[in-house]
Known about the structure:
Two copies of one chain form a homodimer. The first copy, chain A, is of the alpha/beta class.
Amino acid sequence: MEALFYFYRMKAIILPEKNARPSYVEVPEAPKSEGMEVLTVMACALNHRDLWIMKGQYAGLKYPIIPGSDACAALGSKRVVLNPGLFWGADECVQGKHFQILGLPLDGTFAEKVNVPAENIYPAPKHLDDMEAAAIGLAGVTAYRALVSRCKPVPGERLLVTGVGGGVALFALQIGLACGLEVHVTSSRPEKLAKAIAMGAAGGVLYSTPEWETKLKEQCCDGFDIIVDGYAGASFAKLVQLARPGGRIAVYGGTGGKMSDIVPQQIFWKQVSIFGSTMGSQTDFAGFLALVNEKKLKPVVDSVYDLHNAEAAFQRMESQDQFGKIVLRVSGK
Amino acid sequence: MEALFYFYRMKAIILPEKNARPSYVEVPEAPKSEGMEVLTVMACALNHRDLWIMKGQYAGLKYPIIPGSDACAALGSKRVVLNPGLFWGADECVQGKHFQILGLPLDGTFAEKVNVPAENIYPAPKHLDDMEAAAIGLAGVTAYRALVSRCKPVPGERLLVTGVGGGVALFALQIGLACGLEVHVTSSRPEKLAKAIAMGAAGGVLYSTPEWETKLKEQCCDGFDIIVDGYAGASFAKLVQLARPGGRIAVYGGTGGKMSDIVPQQIFWKQVSIFGSTMGSQTDFAGFLALVNEKKLKPVVDSVYDLHNAEAAFQRMESQDQFGKIVLRVSGK
């Protein structure tokens, strides 16, 4: 945005500096560069990452930045979605040194146009409208890699998803059901548990109550084959305890901070595997999209705001009241 | 040993009760039962497990017990070794409910005869004498499963083995070298580091010095692809820090107690995998034995005691002075 010689200008949301409110402004369009495509955004969606960048709580900050990792967009006559994990590299096991997430350091999707590497662009699922298609990218591929690529679920296994209501957790619930798993959830809000059960979860407990792990153990006396967790923190040791022999635990986030008091005997005697997982490769994204299309999965959209109202969308995310993705309408339907 | 109607009697070491000294006694031979073979023991070897059982620090204690999980023995004219993990079950991922380790609850190898399931008996490697062959079982299969079956090493990768000097750690070093890995070690004793380097380790640090992880980082600035650890405890968080992107950490023991202060971001952003591992299936044991035969691996034998001197062998293990396996000669050479 520093350059002044661009001809076309576009509407966008920028985060001007740390802790400043998101502003709806007119900025120059980025020119098309080699290997990149310029997409016309119909809708985009928020992730926690955008909020953390706004608050200055993210690695590699730079301002001003157009945030946003997810979009449903047009490329010529094609309706497309994108894998927001850019330049993953050749190793399926881990992203390489050039890896980055769309929306920092490169300008993101909260704009009329966005510049994206061609290899990250995929056809939008036909059964999803623009708002829904905008909601699947980052959270979906993160959940898919954590649950499917890392934990390799087998139909009939029992899955625990912590903190349901967040984007990744909801996709983990949906993907788990699509894979034929018995899915249980935790949340801090009774209404989120009820919604998850309405979506097909077999049960759930409030992690805000004392002894929640005992309640969960009563519901599922012999524990879980797979656990997908984005919290870590002090409760992680309880997840290790809740794992069945041969159990796998995927960790995709750490909002709860450091993990402590983990009993090593529970890890080695039960042959538990703990898999760190973040974002997803092109293989993960293609696998995720194939599952979305095959099972006609629809993301849970919490709410839709117009792009110029992005500040209200950020506030909605900060409230933690949302259940599902918060979407911004740019020009789509 | 309660039954009085057996005809044949044999010499054996028994642990009569908690914290009592091992006694060299004459006891009845166990009769051959279905699916089991009676082996004539030439040599057997100590594991930490035997010491913990002596001290009453093990699950499922019963006394009196003949301890011992490892042996080189005769079955008719055949010289054999054994996988001490009994009744593993059908699932390669984890041992089943009937799993047990030879030497508790079933009487073990510190005797002239031992009763072992036929499926756990394997030909002894020809390049090993009786004392060496007795030393490979429990520690070898544990190291093999943890390092090879769980972490799937690729030649050229860099391995860290903690606490070298113990049986499993030494096998992890040897197996790592046999797999073409660059192996680094930690120990609390300079002489153990020197011995490990003489065996082929590329380097090592004393974990008893402050900031040992910084020294290790200086030696191997970008960390380790694989870490094999039997300690856990407070230092485990440093191992997570030392893991390269895509790194794998196998945990086969927990003498250091609970793991704390692990930074979840280091797990998920680096896509680290933490694998609990204990003992090994028949597949693991067969794989281990094939590697021992192919690469002509020889276990490190710290010392050999006569069976009636088992108490001195237990004291040697308790001193933590040993480097390699402590073997008991029964009738072999």
